[in-house]
Design a protein that fits this description.
single chain, alpha/beta, four-stranded mixed β-sheet, 45% helix, 14% strand, globular, binds 4-(N,N-dimethylamino)cinnamoyl-COA
Length: 268
Amino acid sequence: QNTDDGNSMQHEYQDILVSEVADGVVTITLNRPEAYNALRTQLLSELADVLQQCSDDDSVRAVVVTGNEKVFAAGADIKEMAALDAVGVLNDPRVMHWRRIAQFPKPLVAAVNGFALGGGCELVMHADIVIAGDNAQFGQPEINLGIIPGAGGTQRLIRTVGKSMAMQLVLSGEFISAAQARDFGLVSEVTIPERSLERALELARKIATKPPIAVRQAKEVLLKAYETTLDSGLSLERKAFTLLAATEDRNEGIAAFMEKRKPNFTGK
Ligand code: DAK
């Protein structure tokens, strides 16, 4: 369904808005305001599709995902979930969409204002860097529905904020503020709400100027720390470090430093 000009990003979506590539960055805006950006299957599938396109397109170096000023995303679509029995849950296509989102290999920066709850908070945890407006609220209120987080919330949350806060959020369903989320490492910076998107874009644009192979290796190796021993993580780091010695961008970066000029990275 690409348009004739061959720009795969230009496509009509129902539940998200997708910007053109600007300075190497694509912005994806979750756009179901009437349902507090609830992550129905359609939305997740569109998000996973766009990320796949961004992954395939060399001109895209980083992606920003955001919501609106009141809500990032209020979680899975409860009305859609209500229709699923156990077999429906077992065969739920959302599992695959979440996996595709998790496998996005380029930097994903989230700009979060308002509610980021349930699957919305889990989407935040799929981002590599999170900037929150000071009106943001984070929570895993699934317990109130008789369920538990289903998109990695239990595993990623405990690795991100530690045991006590992860238990508090998942067992009580209470929300935390942007400042608390920053204290616990769920977000890296808090801004006024009007600035969160601009700050996320600023970071994404900066990352977009960096050597893309090194950026990609850095993301992969950093994420490995979630799921491996120190020893095998260090071994992966060493292999990635060695591999980068074979890139033109590494030679260019070092030469530019020596010659006191700006590097010109080509992605090779
Ligand atoms: N789903 C569907 N609609 C939602 C929604 C949601 N999660 N959240 C809000 N809405 C809708 C409301 O129904 C309402 O629509 P109308 O009734 O007006 O048509 C509209 O958005 C505004 O909501 P409120 O009237 O409730 O607004 P308030 O400002 O009073 O409250 C709120 C805002 C965000 C605190 C409240 O709406 C709320 O508590 N929402 C539900 C939050 C929640 O429980 N989220 C967790 C959902 S469970 C899985 C992967 C992931 C998951 C499951 C499986 N697999 C891969 C298998 C994740 C599960 C979840 O996220």
